[in-house]
Amino acid sequence: MSGGGAPPETTLPLYAAVLCAGAAAWLISGRDQDLRRARLLFAGSGAVGPARQAPRRRLAETVAGLRERWRTACGGRMGRELLCLPAGCVLALAGASVLPLLAGAAAVPVVGRWRRARTHDRERERRAAAVIELCGAVAGELRAGRQPVEALLAAPPGPIGEHWGLVSAAARFGGDVPEALRRAARAPGAEGLTGVAACWQVAVDEGAGLAAGLDRVAAALRAERDHRQHLRAKLAGPRATAVLLVLLPVFGLGMGAALGADPLHVLLHTPAGLACLLVGGLLEWAGFAWTARVIRTAADQGGRRGHGG
């Protein structure tokens, strides 16, 4: 009969294309909004742009508003991991199946968690480097003849953490500087401030040299950083193996398509292909989890040896 709804083969590509276009507009709306603000800033009393661009501006404003509401609701946790949705749409269109689209939607939180972990590690490394620079700067100011409070206020804190304002206030108004430093040390990567607080406490109570103590703290932190970098270099091989394990199925699909075997149709539309897809996905996940566990165990053991040494 011809009066029923559209067949799934027609509706699926349409829905996938709409979702792909929405995700792309979501990702580029921020840049369009910045361009619109720049035009408004430098346009003066003249027109901002031709009248035919008004619908495009309204669409960009609407998408930007929705994106801002999403960021407010979700705490700004969504970002480039949304590109998994267009990728899933492309595979869904190529294979005429909804499974790649569902897989792309399921990959969004996984990729987002991985990206947040990478961002957390980079911030941790920046804070650790900032603590080392702080120790060197304060020690230099002390040797130049400044008092401890003046030296601490003159040193640039860098991206140490949100509690550094408490340290500055305690130093400026006669508060408990060691306790403020211990609070600032709660930020990931700023744990070295605990040693700074101990040196400050000893210097104030017993009159010991603060500059020498800060030099020793900075030397210990540098040694720990060098150990982490050495361990990261040793684990580069297993990490490359994990990445290759993830990319191998993509290479296999591309090689099969180049040979004219149509692997997407076999995997998504035949019982044997679906069974192979399920078993292959489980084996892929098991191999990646095992490799990640090996890397994590080696990193933990190396970190304990570094702290013990």
How would you portray this structure in words?
It comes from Streptomyces lonegramiae. InterPro entries: T2SS_GspF_dom. This is Type II secretion system F family protein. It contains 12 helices and no strands. The protein is elongated. It starts with 7 loop residues before the first helix and ends with a helix. The N terminus is likely disordered.
Rounded radius of gyration (Å): 28 Å
Sum up the overall morphology in one term.
Answer: elongated
Major sheet characteristics:
none
Order of helices and strands: HHHHHHHHHHHH
Low-confidence stretches: 1-8, 41-52
State the separation between the terminal residues, measured CA to CA.
Answer: 79 Å
Class per helix and strand makeup: mainly alpha
Strand content: under 5%
Question: How many runs of DSSP E, i.e. beta strands?
Answer: 0
- Helical segment count: 12
Please state the average pLDDT score.
Answer: 77
Keywords: Cell membrane, Membrane, Transmembrane, Transmembrane helix
Domain Type II secretion system protein GspF: 138-255
Transmembrane segments: 12-29, 240-260, 272-295
Pfam families: T2SSF (PF00482)
A few lines on this structure:
Pfam families: T2SSF (PF00482). The chain crosses the membrane at residues 12-29, 240-260, 272-295. The protein has 309 residues and is an all-alpha fold.
